[in-house]
Amino acid sequence: MASGNSAIRGSRVGAGPMGEQDRGFHADRVAVSYWDAQGNETVRYFAANLPEEEIPDIIDSPSTGLPAGRDRENPPSVSKLEPYKTHLAYVKERRTDEEAAALLDDALTQLRIRRGQA
C-alpha cells in the first residue's frame, strides 16, 4: 500500500498559481437561455464581445437531447422519426402472392447461379 504525500497522481504539484483569472473565468460573459419542446431551460454562457450572429439559435438540450431554441413561447418541435421497419413489415407491404413468388424465384435462381447449379 502506498503512503506518503497527499498529491493526486498526475497533478501539477508546485507548478505555480493557477487562479480563476488565469483560466478566463472573469471575462465578461452573457447568459443565453434555450428552451426545448418539454419546457426545460438550458443556460449557456458566451463571451460578451461575441457578435450576435455567432451565438447559435438552436442547440441540443443536455437534459432531453431534443433541440432547444431561444424563443420560450415557440421552442423547436420534436423531430418525427420513422420507426424501424422489420422484415415482416416489408413482407406485409407486398400486394400480391405472385409478386412474392417472383421475388423468391429470382432469389433462388441467383443462388443456384452462384453455386454453379444452373
TrEMBL record:
Residues 1-21, 56-81 are annotated as: Disordered. Keywords: Transcription, Transcription regulation. GO terms for molecular function: bacterial-type RNA polymerase core enzyme binding. The keyword Nucleotide-binding does not apply. It holds the Pfam family RbpA. One of its GO terms (biological process) is positive regulation of DNA-templated transcription. It comes from the Bacteria. The keyword Ion transport does not apply. Belongs to the RNA polymerase-binding protein RbpA family. Binds to RNA polymerase (RNAP), stimulating transcription from principal, but not alternative sigma factor promoters. Forms a complex with the RNAP catalytic core and with free principal sigma factors. This is RNA polymerase-binding protein RbpA. It comes from Agromyces albus. The lineage of its organism: Bacteria, Bacillati, Actinomycetota, Actinomycetes, Micrococcales.
